[in-house]
Specification:
The protein folds into two domains: 109 residues, 3-Layer(aba) Sandwich (Oxidized Rhodanese, domain 1), CATH 3.40.250; 88 residues, Cupredoxins -  blue copper proteins (Immunoglobulin-like), CATH 2.60.40. 25% of the residues lie in helices and 28% in strands. The chain has five helices and 14 strands. A five-stranded parallel beta sheet has the order 1-5-4-2-3. The longest helix is centred in the N-terminal third of the chain and has 26 residues.
Length: 244
Amino acid sequence: MKKVSIIIALSVLIIAFGIFVYTKMRSLQPMDKEVVQKKEYKATSFEDKYSFKNISVQELKKMLDKAEDFVLIDVHIPEQKHIQGTDEFIPFNAIKENIDKLPKKDRKIVIYCRTGSMSARAAKEMVEMGYTNVYNLEDGIVGWKEAGFKVNGPDRIIYLKAQRFSFSPDIIKVNQGNKVKIIAESPDVTHGFALSEFNINMRIEPGARNILEFIADKRGEFIFRCSVFCGSGHNNMKGELVVK
């Protein structure tokens, strides 16, 4: 009887060990495609824990051609030449630090980068921040070019803050031939942005996005000034454009 009990106990142990080994081997199997995609932030239409959608370059082109109401953001770093119609440049790894550049949380937003990887990460972060209408350009600028569409937007998007009695940044560096887009804002009063060598004189109204585009076709160092009287320190309100 004792021998029978020992045999039964050994059999149970062998079976339990076999189940343990089988379970362990299963856990070491590669993740299926869906799990890998989620780990790389390549989500498709509104998957679990995602509420952003991938769109094709053809869909974005139609949206731009129809002048639909949405915000287009390039998040690729280093900064690349942008698609025409791009509203913002925000590095994909600095979304929270640039929340002041983002629109309202229910506004339609399309994000892109070079291939779609950085933009998917940025889209995921924006969803976690509460944005509810976020789209990711699946193949990025690479796919845009492969589809035969031109990348003829600005080379640089620069944010300029005009405030009594200084500009920030007060030194802007670009390369000769760059198409430059300046988005200027004022938190206090009306200011101006005058760059005489490029025949530029723009008013910067408070509470508004004041947008200027030009081509930096001259090499050198150029002074820009506030061209609207803004108070006692007005004459000292200036900065420098450096074109290399």
